[in-house]
Amino acid sequence: MTFPILPIFGKDIDNVLIDKPFLKLAGQAVLDASEFATDADILAAAKKCSNNFKSISIFLDSVEQFNEKELINILNNGVDKIYSIKQITFESIPPSRLVSNIPTGLARADDMSLDAFSEAVLSKLKSDRKDGLYTTLVVDEAERCLGLVYSSKESIALAIKKERGIYFSRSRNEIWEKGATSGNTQKLISVDLDCDSDALKFIVGQDGVGFCHLETESCFGNFSYGLVELEKTLLNRLSNAVEGSYTRRLFSDEELLNAKIKEEAEELVEAKGKDEISWEAADLFYFIMTKLVSCGVSLKDVENNLNMKNLKITRRKGDAKPKFLKKKEDSIVEKKLKIDTSKDEPVFLQVVESSDIEGVQGAVTRPIQKTSEIMHLVQPIIENVKTNGDKALLEYTEKFDGVKLTSTCIEAPIPEEYFEGLTDEMKNSLDLSIENVRKFHAAQLQEEPMVVETQPGVVCSRFPRPIERVGLYIPGGTAILPSTALMLGVPAQVAGCKEIVFASPPCKSDGKISPEVAYVASKVGASKIVLAGGAQAVAAMAYGTESVPKVDKILGPGNQFVTAAKMHVQNDTQALCSIDMPAGPSEVLVVADEDADEDFVASDLLSQAEHGIDSQVILVGVNLSKAKIDRIQQAVHSQALELPRLEIVRKCITHSTIILCKSYQEAIEMSNKYAPEHLILQINNANDYVKLVDNAGSIFVGAYTPESCGDYSSGTNHTLPTYGYARQYSGCNTSTFQKFITAQSITPEGLDKIGRAVMCIAKVEGLDGHRNAVKIRMNKLGLLPKV
Ligand SMILES: NC(=O)c1ccc[n+]([C@@H]2O[C@H](COP(=O)([O-])OP(=O)(O)OC[C@H]3O[C@@H](n4cnc5c(N)ncnc54)[C@H](O)[C@@H]3O)[C@@H](O)[C@H]2O)c1
Ligand SMILES: N[C@H](CO)Cc1c[nH]c[nH+]1
Ligand SMILES: [Zn+2]
């Protein structure tokens, strides 16, 4: 702050500013404390000043006028400095804030004339230019540069007098009032001198289209779209937004706006990585700015507040309020479960009645990010891999998986070192699982063509062909999944795919793939293992790179980045690549009745909860008593505490629920609506209810059928549709690795049977070429009457 005048105000500050508005241009003010009785009076005056001045200080004759606590209070509430002739030092007050030397330029505001004010500025200025002018930087209220101009002593005096942007035009050699002809005028807000007093800074409020004669906001073009521009847009929308628009809805529905702020804040909390965090933060800023504008609070007000907080000399401890650290229902549940929470925070599921429509809606909402948001994050990754191939792949592996590799793939035959550490027990377990999966998938293989004679002489057939080159994604972010390798590799082999490529993120510690995944890869005849994960692995297989072959279909589960990338490439005709299904974060819905074993129920819920924080587990209870619910919650809690992935489980459980139904029928309907990846029936006569299931990836029937068996060894596939896609997708099966070709063969007799129908329909479609292809043949066969 180098303005040469520091006006000192007494109690009558308002009237003085009405009489002498030019004083505001100093941008700084001092309050004479001798005119105020208490620290509260000083702060009230300082608050009033804060609208007009960037900096406010206090002048004390004697520091003893206030005690230490009061001085701290003054400095903690936006006062920059306390000037005091008689000095005392306090340990808790920095010497830079309690100053004994009286600043230069201090002058009584009520005695100050306009001429004296201008003269004080002009006498301080020196010009280093031949024409005697002063370089003047013009900035807006957010201190964004509008342009560079020149001022003369006369133009400065006039600018101060009229409080407008008035400069000296070198081209016209005359005083120039900005906007006098264009209407793009400027209100002068404050004037600063630079460190050696040879240049000025005018802070102005710019009216009209902007500062530049080319009608841009600044002489350097328009400003980029940051918070200041967002504020302008929203202010504009506040007065002009069309009825029915989203912004209008937000302005008029406070509850919706507040809910969006909470929602975006939560998404920001959960966001990871620079891109995702900046994306979520931008969303949050949007809703916050909407709230500010709708409440008449400006960005400047917020900045003033930040400034004030920055001046605090004592700070609060900053702990979060308990309600944000613990779930609201904790206390009830603690009582109910009688859990010693001092040792272990309870792991419990929310409970809702099926009649609570909103509660159920919340319970069955999957904790996933909007596809559009994830797409925005994966698209640049895909484009980069498409353009830069292996180089980009290696860079992303270093960035996301923390491994610096020199080559992207392991080629078959996989070198021995990759199998190190594989025990016989593990090999036998994998062999048993592979065999069961092979049996079940081989049984699905249709080898003979299907032949149907639809009319005498019209033979239609259909036969399968393997998809030639398949890319199998084996997740490896939070857990290494050799079971997924076999669930995908075995049916690919059974179907007869010619090239099987595996992709999986490499292990952080040694940059390798797990020996179990390597073992399965060699058993199913994979030609390569791409050491990469996420969107980058999907892109590499979809488009091919120098080392990764382009495949025809990509299969396999993965997190939201993997799923979004699969969906992107399948929509890109350039990739010419299909996918199996959106198989995202694991989920389970367990239907249990009063007779279900609570330990079994809890273990099934936890087995999927441990997959990832974005997994979801739901228990649909049929006529469960309160005591039963408590026992299930207790079992979930005590089993969870023993799990190594407890922290993941805890997060998953925060969006997992028990829904209470009144009948088996209602429970199955609830499940059909949710369309779970896995449905577990732990109810009496479970088999009888299978026929009522319309939507589910895979069903586990009866108390002794844990979902884990399907995950590993029984024979069914564990790559299954999630997000509710079980409504329209099947889980992975042998036909997922095949396509079907149809063929037909027609004899003259057959042509006689269907030819007229073909001609008739072709005619109505206006496709005479089609009609002719039949007509010519039928004519030659003498099947049509001569005309
Ligand atoms: N539906 C099914 O059939 C099925 C089967 C098995 C597993 N799953 C699910 O698969 C998922 C596996 O997820 P995972 O994370 O453990 O492994 P993953 O291999 O799917 O994902 C790990 C990769 O994600 C990428 N990634 C991580 N953070 C990123 C970021 N901020 N930006 C861009 N990329 C990023 C990295 O490249 C990393 O290699 C789990 O949700 C699990 O529930 C589903
Ligand atoms: N349950 C997962 C599918 O949602 C598959 C899996 C692999 N390993 C253990 N489980
Ligand atoms: Zn599982």
From TrEMBL:
Needed co-factor(s): Zn(2+)
GO annotation, cellular component aspect: cytosol
A biological process from GO: L-histidine biosynthetic process
Domain Phosphoribosyl-AMP cyclohydrolase: 148-220
Keywords tagged on the record: Amino-acid biosynthesis, ATP-binding, Histidine biosynthesis, Hydrolase, Metal-binding, Multifunctional enzyme, NAD, Nucleotide-binding, Oxidoreductase, Zinc
GO molecular function: ATP binding; histidinol dehydrogenase activity; metal ion binding; NAD binding; phosphoribosyl-AMP cyclohydrolase activity; phosphoribosyl-ATP diphosphatase activity
Name listed for the protein in its UniProt record: Histidine biosynthesis trifunctional protein
Pathway membership, UniProt: Amino-acid biosynthesis; L-histidine biosynthesis; L-histidine from 5-phospho-alpha-D-ribose 1-diphosphate: step 9/9; Amino-acid biosynthesis; L-histidine biosynthesis; L-histidine from 5-phospho-alpha-D-ribose 1-diphosphate: step 2/9; Amino-acid biosynthesis; L-histidine biosynthesis; L-histidine from 5-phospho-alpha-D-ribose 1-diphosphate: step 3/9
Known EC number: 1.1.1.23, 3.5.4.19, 3.6.1.31
Matches recorded under SUPFAM superfamilies: ALDH-like, all-alpha NTP pyrophosphatases, HisI-like
Keyword Lipid metabolism: no
Catalyzed reactions per annotation: L-histidinol + 2 NAD(+) + H2O = L-histidine + 2 NADH + 3 H(+); 1-(5-phospho-beta-D-ribosyl)-ATP + H2O = 1-(5-phospho-beta-D-ribosyl)-5'-AMP + diphosphate + H(+); 1-(5-phospho-beta-D-ribosyl)-5'-AMP + H2O = 1-(5-phospho-beta-D-ribosyl)-5-[(5-phospho-beta-D-ribosylamino)methylideneamino]imidazole-4-carboxamide
Organism of origin: Kazachstania africana (strain ATCC 22294 / BCRC 22015 / CBS 2517 / CECT 1963 / NBRC 1671 / NRRL Y-8276) (Yeast)
Family designation: In the C-terminal section; belongs to the histidinol dehydrogenase family.
